[in-house]
Amino acid sequence: MPRLRLFFALVLSLVQIQSYRLPDLYVPTFYELDLNLPPEAFTNTSDTFQGRVSIQFLVTNATSFVALHAHHDFVQVQRVVFNDTEVLTGNYSVDNTTDILNVSLPVEIDSSVSYSLVIEYTGRLSTRDMYGLYKSYYLDANGTVRYLVTTQFEATYARRAFPCFDEPALKAVFGLSVTVPNELNVLFNTKQTSNVTNETTGLTSIVFNTTPLMPTYLLALVVSDFTCTSGASIGNTTYQVCSRNESAATRQLALDLGPQLLAALNNFTGYDYGVAMEKMDQVAIPDFAAGAMENWGLVTYRETAILWDINESSNRYRQRVATVIAHEFAHQWFGDLVTPKWWSEIFLNEGFATYFEFFTTHEVLPSWQLDKQFVIEELHAALLDDSLENAHALQSSCSTPAEISSKFSTISYSKGGSVLRMVEHVMQLQNFRTGLQNYLTTYQFSNTEPENLWDILNQNVVNSVSRLPANLTTVMENWTKSSGYPVLDVDWNGNQVTISQKRFLISGEVRSGDWYVPISYTVSSDLNKFHNTTPNAWLVPSSNLTITLPSNTEWIILNNHQTGFYRVNYGNNLWNRIRNALTGTNFDGITEINRAHIVDDLFNLARAGQVFYPAVLDTVSYLVNETSYFPWYSALSGFSFLLKRVGEESLLGQTISSNILRLMSALYDSVPISTLRDDDVIYTHTQTLALAWACKLGKADCVWDVKDLFSQYQSSGIKPNKNLRSVVYCNALRYSNNNRTDWEFLWNSYLNSTGLATEQITVLSALGCTRDVILLREYLNKTITDGSGIRPQDALSVFVSVYSGSPEGVDVAFEFLMGNYITIATKYAGFNSLGKLITGLAQTFTTQDQIARLRNFIMSNNLPEDFQVAAGQALEIAETNARWLQTYQNDLWNYYNLPASGSDRVNLSLLLLLGTAILVLSFYK
């Protein structure tokens, strides 16, 4: 094993020695939590508060100690009382590594009765990140700083706010009383039962209804001066949206859509939300680490995910608000009502929420075509991430907080949702729905693991050999417990095709695969079959499948509407037939989603060395006649990879760019910048995609148009159309003749747009598009400078905008990361963000010099544990990309008939060979 990989393996093995799980002894039943948040906590002078928690619990076996969670940095235990007997100070302590508070009891206890543990403590509000009980702020209309206190407990942060059994299976009922300054409002998971104001002390004491049985991570609290607007009730459930008072007008979209989405989920699940929870509050938080959080009855959001201005916010943000609300509402059933036993099965939360995010919103707003958007945005992203060697399985072990955090990934969300969608189409929708209704009823207020879900769904599968070759638990085992997925090889032989499977790895390595694969297909003579997604047959482990075709068949395409989670490689003969169909006059007889499917498969099969790039580029030449958003989304993702690898400004990169612009001609003409259709979501998505790419690749009229619109904005103060701003802002800076003047104009517009988060994020993303290295360095430095105007939650977006905006930005971002990684980890809210930075940045590396600098950075610094693992992954990504360039660049040069003696080609090859030699020598010396 190479020394660097051995180092990472040793780090991981040492982490595993310490147990982070609580003993399987305790059953908490009730918490009474009392928090006292003094006026000073809502200033910049103090971050402390007083807390007291009384926990009723049972034990399953005799024991003389209690182990629960408390984070030593945020909870300082002052007093512990067990069953009215005070525990001496020396008999309790917190393990600073595992966050476990061990309490040695004065007597041995058994399972015969309930016990009480009371802990009084001094708490500290977090001000350096957005986890636990933390402090946020905003500027009101007068420019005055207003502070608020809120929570983010998922996954392991409730222990920062109060001592508790902080594991998802340890559900209990919670009661809360809180004391706060009189002028502030308090929201909790449940409604208030009493509110007593003391004018002398200036404090108000509030008591809330007890919660349903729930895990600690779903508790939530917001203490602020926010105002709320009530929406339509859903049955007996009240509904409101709360935010800074200045943003009240931007609540309307959430007020309109929220009740519709909740009602749709009530109907689909057959389980009325109001049975478990009396209200639904949604709150926009100025500083929020996640996109949103599904706290039961009190959902919290980033402002961009819940507030939308009809005149100023784009349709992309409109869609984001709708889908994020649907995602969080789905969690009220999948996660809140029924909870996974442990974080290793978090896909049972996030997979379902991702599925309903798209398909519930599609039910309410069908014109947005979110059923199709799911394929290109979620399924294709999951197929890419799951093709990596180090991808984790849907069901995989985790113990430490860092490991748990890593499970909140594209695999859990997007693959989870995609696999559930596959099961839906195998079972057919009504059977799937009935099974889920039974699942929720059976496991309400309880915890599950995947086998529980499959067993109940299996009872609702129609008995048909073509639909299910074994019981569902057996069918789903490899889909959930193994990483990866199959690529199906289709061998055409006369009037038959033979289908076999192997695991698909983007690296090109060949591995066997043993999945139960549902096969739907369409042949050239019966195009209506594209709309039948129920499996025609199954490919089972260790066997091939042979399908006999009608005599007049020109081609066969597998995986109707790409409902199955797999890729398909058709072999030369059949690929040629499919290419002929696409380049013919009736290419749209193949549905647009299957066209997107074919394009995405081709680019990734070529990347893995299973299809030759000339065959891919010949096939996608049909795009010259394509104007559908969905195939183009997939195609531009594929072309983006090529440009990143070869370098946009190399001769090869410029040639590929020219070819893309030629193919885009019909698409570009179909969505002219002068034709606006703000009510048509798919049109504006298509227009933004086409214009962004045309301008980035240097299409002259596109560049002229956006610069003209930006100039008009500068002179008149009238902003471009809301759906065009991202394109106009970015490319006006990219092609600016007055870099600093234009950049500072846009930066000042950011500083002056504090009332609308969607506009701020649009501007922040565009500011990284400048190619001025000095400005880029200054911009990145703002992310670690207090008072610069950039919030910690947005620092990651700034960093990404810099390295993705231009080739110059890649080196500037890498230089900044190497020089400031400790500060970045603090300012960007944790090492988890640092890991995202380095793995994302590594995707853009194109030279051996960049790889050598990355390797030296890793080996020369004592990197924190979480970052070490991410840095190793980043190095693997960069090395894989370099190998790709060595392997495939000649194919691309030859395809485009570029001169064999081209300086780019010769110099690049020499650089790769020389760089590889230097690295090998330095690595093993």
Automatic annotation (TrEMBL):
Xref: InterPro entries: Aminopeptidase_N-like_N (IPR045357), Aminopeptidase_N-like_N_sf (IPR042097), ERAP1-like_C_dom (IPR024571), M1_APN-typ (IPR034016), Peptidase_M1 (IPR001930), Peptidase_M1_aminopeptidases (IPR050344), Peptidase_M1_dom (IPR014782), Peptidase_M4/M1_CTD_sf (IPR027268)
Active site annotation, chain numbering: E328
Topology of this chain in the membrane: Lipid-anchor; GPI-anchor
Keyword Glycoprotein: yes
Signal peptide: 1-19
Segments forming domain Aminopeptidase N-like N-terminal: 27-218
GO biological-process terms attached to the record: peptide catabolic process; proteolysis
Residues binding Zn(2+), per UniProt: H327, H331, E350
Keywords, alphabetical: Aminopeptidase, Cell membrane, Disulfide bond, Glycoprotein, GPI-anchor, Hydrolase, Lipoprotein, Membrane, Metal-binding, Metalloprotease, Protease, Signal, Zinc
Annotated GO CC locations: cytoplasm; extracellular space; plasma membrane; side of membrane
EC number: 3.4.11.-
Domain Peptidase M1 membrane alanine aminopeptidase, residue spans: 254-479
Annotated compartments: Cell membrane
Reactions catalysed according to its record: Release of an N-terminal amino acid, Xaa-|-Yaa- from a peptide, amide or arylamide. Xaa is preferably Ala, but may be most amino acids including Pro (slow action). When a terminal hydrophobic residue is followed by a prolyl residue, the two may be released as an intact Xaa-Pro dipeptide
Needed co-factor(s): Zn(2+)
Entry similarity comment: Belongs to the peptidase M1 family.
Protein name per its UniProtKB record: Aminopeptidase
Organism: Exocentrus adspersus
